[in-house]
Amino acid sequence: MEKIFQGKFYNGLSSFAYEASILLEEHAILIAYNDKEEQEQTVVWDINQMQKNEFIDKANVTLIYGVFPPQSLEVHSAEFVSEIKSKYAKAPFMQSNYHFLANKGLKGVLIGGSACLGLLLLFYFFGIPTVAESIATKFPIQYEEQLGEQMFEALIKNYEVDSAKSTLVNDFYKKLNYPSNYNIKITVVQEDMVNAFAVPGGNIVVFDGILEKMRSSEQLAALLAHEASHIELKHSTKSIFRSLGNYLFISLIFYDINAIASILIDNANMLNNLSYS
Which of 94, 144, 167, 234 has its CA 20 to 30 A from that of 240? Predict the structure, then answer.
């Protein structure tokens, strides 16, 4: 009878770790766990769809499956590590460059390590800003809206919302009939500062201090069009990704994809200070 191992399963949608039972079959890994509603779930990983595993020590391993956002499996068991090395020795995810260099001895490890470090430093200092903006540009609207809603909820707690003015401004914006790929929602808050800003995914926050300064409906239309264009052109998303690029890069290096959402949400307040030409 094949042995069942225990580990922690991450479904790629949150940072929550599920206690899981793991069965190693010839061409697949079976993972069984109970979701947050205590419903039993089974996940089947095709061996050929697993990402390469560069580092496996004697008793600990993290396996990665699929593309963004990937699923992952953490197991702390020397027997499990020995079993996957034996059962999947020829599988694509086990054919790592690190293992090849390790077989060359200390010299191979030092050469490979130095080359990797040099490339990482080069990318860290010169490539991250460009890559971060490119990722932001291609970031799916669906994910941007979900992320933006979480950021908005974290941010709006700092203000007192004026529901009556919010309703009036939203009604006014709808009459303008600006075309957009996003569902634009406007929230007016009580704040003397003359300011307004856009949150990724569709939320616009307007301080009533700027409304008090306005003398015509055209001025309000211009303000809302300005902020809506930031959302449509992903200006807020790009600025956040650039500013937090180093943190995001480190999360990607360690396969901690789920940390990205946490990093962006924790830094939602920086939207107050974003400015554009």
Answer: 167
For each successive 10 residues of the chain (277 residues), what is the average pLDDT? 90 89 94 92 93 76 86 93 89 70 54 70 72 80 86 89 96 93 95 90 94 94 94 85 68 53 56 49
Q: How far apart are CA 245 and CA 249, in angstroms?
A: 6
Which of 58, 69, 59, 73 has its CA nearest to residue 22?
73
The whole-angstrom separation of Cα 126 and Cα 191 is: 39
Residue pair 165/211 in contact (Cβ under 8 Å)? The answer is yes
As a whole number of angstroms, the distance between CA 209 and CA 77 comes to 60
Please state, as a whole number, how many other Cβ atoms lie within 10 Å of the Cβ of residue 105.
9
Q: Tokens for 24, please give them.
A: 């190693």
In b/e form, how buried is each residue of 58-94, taking b as 16+ CB within 10 angstroms?
eeebbbbbeeebbbbbebebeebbebbeebbeeeebb
Sheet with 196-199: list strands edge to edge: 185-189, 203-207, 196-199
Helices (H), the chain: 78-87, 97-102, 106-122, 128-138, 141-156, 163-176, 208-213, 217-232, 235-243, 245-253, 259-266
Q: Report pTM.
A: 0.50
What's residue 110's pLDDT?
Answer: 66
Q: Tokens at residue 29, please?
A: 């890994």
The amino acid at 211:
L
What does each C-alpha distance from 198 to 239, 260, 267 come to in angstroms?
12, 20, 14
CB 81 within 8 A of CB 58: yes
Cα(37)–Cα(255) distance, integer angstroms: 27
Give the model's pLDDT for residue 240: 77
Q: Which long-range contacts (CB under 8 A, 24 or more apart) does 30-34 make?
A: 31/73, 33/9
